[in-house]
Each structure stands twice: as C-alpha cells, then as structure tokens.
Please model this.
Amino acid sequence: MWDRIRFVYCDLDDTLLDHSGAERRALREVQQAYPELARLRGGYRLYRRINQMLWDAYGRGEIGREALRKLRFALWLRLLGGDPGRWAEVEAAYLNRYAAHWRWLPGARRAWLSLGRRWPLGLLSNGLLEIQRAKLARFPELQQARVAILAEEVGLRKPDPAIFELALERAGLRAEEVLVIGDSYETDIAPARALGMRTLWIHPDHPVSLPADAIAPSLFAWTRTLQKEHVL
Model:
C-alpha cells in the first residue's frame, strides 16, 4: 500500500514536536512562580480541560481568538484561586516557558528526515499562527516541508473537511495518493479517511482498534517498521 503513496502530511504538535510535555512543564513553572498558585495541585489537568473546551468553542465560531487567549488563563486563575485580572501577565510567562521547552518527540526528527528521503512532505497544523510559525523557524529541519498549511493562515481548522481538501489541492494529487499522519483520531484521522486519504494514527497507548490504515506508538516506531520492510 505504501508504494502508492506520493505525498505525506504530518501534524505538528504531539506528532513531531512534544507539545504536551512543553505545555505541562511550562504550566508547572508558572505555578511555581506565583505563590498563590504554587501550593495547588491539578493545575495542568485543569488547564487542559479549560483549553480544550475553549478551542472547541473557537472551532465552532462561538468565540474569537482573543477571547480564547484571555479566557483560558483567566478561567484557570479563577479556578485555582488566583486573580483572573492577571491573565495577560500569566499568559506571557507561560508562552515564554512553553517556547523554552519545545523539543522533538523521541526519534521524530530522524523519522521526519527519513520520510523526506522517500516522499515529499507537508505540514498540516492547528494552533495559534504566531506560535506555529515560531516553531517552524526554531526547527530548520521542518523547512523541508513542500507545503505548510497552518490553520489560522488559511482560515480553516482541522477537522473541517475543507482544510484537507486544500491539502490535496496543494499536493496536486488524488486522495488515495496522500498519507495523513496525526495523533488525534477526531482531528486528523477521521476527516482524512472520510475523503479517501490514507492515514497513520500515532497513539502511544495502543487503544482499541479504530479505522486507520496503520496505528503506531510513535512516528519513529513506524519508520523503523518501514525500514525493516524495505519501504524506506
């Protein structure tokens, strides 16, 4: 099947780069910097729930990006017993620490370069535009992507089918010739499959089977398998 692939799109966060790890470490450091927050546990899990709720609302068009930016920290501070009025200060501290912790996932850099020797590569990413652009600038290996589709830049957001249709248009290929790799079934895999694209679901926990052309615990593990099968 992989011999029929002619283009590969990768998600960025938690597929290539360790977004969750950077987020967790940054939030811990922010809590430690504010005495009124430092003693409270569960801050990371609480932030994740708030952030996901607001991103879902943003995706549905119920709030704008500035409301998203403000509310995720204002609500977090309020529920942790801090001052919601300090949201901008806390956001700035978080973004500074978050960027300091950007890293490739284990083996992901090597896997990305290996894929690039076999297929043309693209990036297909949600996230705030200025942050995603900064990540592309930080990691020069990502510059080999022939196409980089950033959600806010094109005015679309995964899982909207339109962003995957745009990905096909920019690749100039039929759906069955394009592979989409991502860590979110709902955001990456399901909408790509609905259009007939090939899919690789990166899921470390080996969940119960859901429809995908392949499931792997990491991008590196999958490329090792391809190397053993002499595909790479």
Summary: The chain has a mean pLDDT of 93. The radius of gyration is 19 Å. Strands lie at 7-10, 121-125, 147-150, 178-182, 198-202, 214-216. The chain has eleven helices and six strands.
